[in-house]
Structure to design on (113 residues):
């Protein structure tokens, strides 16, 4: 299921349990957002966070992912206006998979771009 959300600076966006792709649409001037991952994921569930529109973005967008303790490879920034991929933290989308293997019960980053 695709979920589309427009956000302003410091908004908190909560993904629905069945969301597989979360498109974030920053309002003019937005530069920070918190994303809550699906609250009841299933083993093998994929979850992608992507900027759906970059026309109003003038700078990098700070991203805070929650619950951070259960996310391996958390991102810190989307940078749709630049081409810098310094330390693998600057990009426009990221995908995670949820795994219950060996009791981890966590999200693991599998790709970004």
């Amino acid at each position: 299921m695709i979920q589309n959300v427009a956000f302003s600076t410091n908004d908190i966006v909560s993904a629905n349990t069945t969301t597989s792709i979360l498109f974030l649409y920053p309002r003019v001037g937005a530069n920070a957002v918190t994303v809550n991952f699906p609250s009841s994921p299933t083993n093998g569930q994929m979850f992608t966070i992507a900027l759906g529109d970059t026309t109003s973005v003038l700078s990098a967008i700070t991203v805070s992912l929650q619950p951070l303790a259960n996310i391996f490879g958390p991102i810190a920034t989307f940078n749709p206006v630049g081409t810098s991929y310094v330390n693998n933290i600057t990009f426009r989308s990221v995908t995670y998979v949820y795994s219950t293997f060996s009791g981890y019960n966590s999200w693991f980053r599998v790709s970004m771009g």
